[in-house]
């Protein structure tokens, strides 16, 4: 069995940076990647229209000044192919592929208490061992399909957005169904509507969408942006969720009506997530404030969709603006004014089965050439559930998490020594690369400390985990998002056991998260048992 200092699972943004850092430390590392190329999220999500909702220049790696000076983001919100190219450029520059084994899906990871090493088993049966195990498996990376009867019988083409084929799919002249209206569905719908002969959107729950306001970045503007990189990353480090946007310090009703309204109009005209994370500071905690903003957005939807009945169908009734992930859109609402597009309320008339020709709802049969499942992911812990991890005493991670996932700062779990999770449960998410860089650097510093001190094993202490988890639970109290079903509250109706709302993510600020993790290092890792 091949042996390494460290095994990394996944060659997405986390895995690539972790490999670079481990090499710097002189560790011999091996990456196992299920795909045939690097990129993770940006490798798998090739669906039409896929792009960032974070500003491109706030999204790339901040650690490589040379690459920052060279790379030209062509749009304010880069499309998937560009990001995949970018991550391939990183892999080339650092010659990362020689340590990455592709088409290697990890099936099991077992802690060997005698050897004090992890044994990793691939689906092929191949095994490898390492002192350290680092999971870089993503937070939204385990795609889920509905459980409709007859799904295998469909004679046309069908795709999940997160498992999109590499060869382009041609929608021209085709009858297309899109099931799902989350961030992936919205991006797909906008694109497919351009060429499909007929597009039928099956919407179970409308989401509050807001304009992306994307635009090209000409060379001169990119040159100006490059000069600002230090300021851009400094700002991302200071804001609540590492975006360039930060909440307005005022409460909604402390501002006079005219000014309040003008402020929302301004946010609606601006690029990116400002309207969500740069809104009045009480928007996600105060019901009346939230209703005010929701009403404003509802009015915008009514103004953009010509058929009043369709407009009403697109306005969420069961949750307020921003309490679920806000999909950013480009003429999404106008798509429903096109004669080739129809919206079906699949809560009122649920999809009952897939047929060889299309699908049947409780009200009608539809014929399709292509069905797109934009049905989302088993989020946050889903990728962990798909690998059989066993820790000290042969305890499965699934058992340790039977009452809900736990962690110490999202990166360690007691009883799973020398296992580090990048983007594990309860890490700060937000603008994800910023979280990734922090987590990779934290793990790397912990490994450096262990190496320098001659320590072989590190395990999170149970009491440290409990203190951290209490902090996580306390933060979630009073948030309107906790009253709503979404992947952010651990709900996935297509997965058994994921029907009850939980505190599935860290809801505090990224600076607060980082301070907690840094304190662990600053206090000489008192929260970890090391030997
Ligand atoms: P989401 O946001 O989880 O959206 C999934 C969508 O699929 C959502 O509209 C679901 O409706 C719908 N869905 C799922 N299963 C079904 C069934 N069985 N019938 C009808 N409709 C269904 O996933 P995305 O991929 O769009 O986005 C995930 C995140 O990735 C996103 O937030 C970004 O941060 C990146 P529901 O709302 O459950 O009624």
- Uncertain residue ranges: none
**Cα gyration radius (Å):** 23 Å
For this structure, the quaternary state is single chain
Going by CATH, the homologous superfamily of the largest domain would be FAD/NAD(P)-binding domain
| Count of helical stretches | 18
Helix content: 25-40%
**Overall pLDDT metric:** 98
CATH architecture of the largest domain: 3-Layer(bba) Sandwich
CATH class of the largest domain: Alpha Beta
Name the overall outline: globular
Task: Provide the list of bound ligands, each named once.
Answer: ligand NA7
| CATH topology label of the largest domain | FAD/NAD(P)-binding domain
- Cα-to-Cα separation, first versus last residue: 25 Å
Which class of secondary structure composition applies to the elements? alpha/beta
Largest sheet: 8 strands, mixed
What portion of the residues fall into strands of 2 or more residues? 15-25%
Task: Count the E strands.
Answer: 20
The number of domains? 2
List keywords for this structure.
about 525 residues, alpha/beta, FAD/NAD(P)-binding domain, about 15% strand, binds ligand NA7
Commentary on this structure:
With 531 residues, the protein is an alpha/beta fold. The protein folds into two domains: 2-142 and 379-473 and 507-530, FAD/NAD(P)-binding domain (3-Layer(bba) Sandwich); 178-373, no CATH class. 33% of the residues lie in helices and 16% in strands. It is built from 18 helices and 20 strands. Strands 1, 2, 3, 4, 5, 6, 17 and 18 form an eight-stranded mixed beta sheet that branches. Helix 1 runs parallel beside helix 16 (432-453) and helix 16 (432-453) runs parallel beside helix 18 (510-522). The mean pLDDT is 98. It binds ligand NA7.
């Amino acid at each position: 069995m091949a042996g390494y200092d460290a095994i990394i699972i996944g060659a997405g943004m986390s895995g690539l940076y972790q490999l670079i850092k481990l090499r710097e430390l002189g560790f011999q590392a091996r990456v196992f990647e299920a795909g045939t190329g690097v990129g993770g999220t940006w490798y798998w999500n090739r669906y039409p229209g896929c792009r960032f909702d974070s500003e491109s220049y706030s999204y790339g790696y901040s650690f490589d000044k040379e690459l920052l000076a060279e790379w030209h983001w062509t749009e304010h919100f880069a499309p998937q192919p560009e990001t995949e190219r970018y991550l391939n450029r990183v892999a080339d520059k650092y010659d990362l592929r020689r340590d990455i084994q592709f088409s290697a899906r990890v099936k099991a990871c077992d802690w060997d208490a005698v050897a004090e090493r992890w044994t990793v088993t691939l689906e092929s049966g191949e095994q490898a061992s390492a002192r350290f195990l680092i999971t870089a498996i993503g937070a939204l990376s385990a795609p889920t399909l509905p459980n409709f009867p007859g799904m295998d019988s469909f004679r046309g083409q069908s795709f999940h957005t997160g498992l999109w084929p590499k060869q382009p799919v041609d929608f021209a002249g085709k009858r297309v169904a899109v099931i799902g209206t989350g961030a992936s569905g919205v991006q797909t719908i906008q694109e497919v509507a351009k060429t499909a002969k007929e597009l039928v959107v099956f919407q179970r729950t409308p989401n509050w969408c807001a304009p992306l306001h994307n635009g090209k970045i000409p060379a001169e503007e990119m040159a100006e942006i490059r000069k600002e990189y230090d300021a851009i990353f400094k700002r991302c480090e200071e804001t609540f969720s590492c975006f360039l946007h930060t909440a307005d310090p005022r409460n909604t009703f402390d501002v006079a009506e005219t000014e309040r309204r003008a402020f929302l109009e301004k946010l609606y005209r601006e690029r990116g997530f400002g309207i969500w994370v740069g809104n009045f500071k009480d928007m996600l905690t105060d019901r009346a404030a939230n209703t005010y903003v929701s009403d404003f957005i509802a009015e915008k939807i009514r103004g953009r969709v010509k058929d009043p009945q369709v407009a009403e169908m697109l306005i969420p009734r069961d949750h307020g603006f921003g309490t679920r992930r806000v999909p950013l859109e480009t003429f999404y609402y106008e798509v429903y004014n096109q004669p080739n597009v129809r919206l079906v309320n699949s809560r009122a008339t649920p999809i009952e089965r897939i047929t060889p020709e299309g699908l049947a709802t409780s009200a009608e049969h539809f014929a399709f050439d292509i069905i797109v499942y934009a049905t989302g992911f088993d989020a946050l812990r889903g990728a962990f559930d798909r690998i059989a991890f066993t820790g000290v005493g042969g305890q499965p991670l699934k058992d340790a998490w039977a009452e809900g996932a736990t962690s110490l700062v999202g990166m360690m779990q007691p009883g799973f020594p020398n296992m580090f999770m990048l983007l594990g449960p309860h890490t700060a998410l937000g603008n994800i690369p910023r979280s990734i860089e922090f987590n990779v650097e934290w793990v790397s510093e912990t490994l450096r400390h262990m190496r320098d001190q001659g320590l072989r094993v590190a395990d999170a202490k149970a009491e440290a985990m409990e203190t951290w988890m209490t902090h996580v639970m306390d933060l979630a109290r009073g948030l309107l998002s906790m009253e709503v079903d979404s992947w952010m509250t651990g709900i996935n109706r297509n997965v058994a056991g994921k029907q009850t709302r939980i505190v599935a993510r860290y809801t505090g600020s990224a600076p607060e998260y980082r301070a907690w993790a840094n304190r662990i290092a600053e206090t000489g890792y008192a929260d970890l048992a090391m030997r």
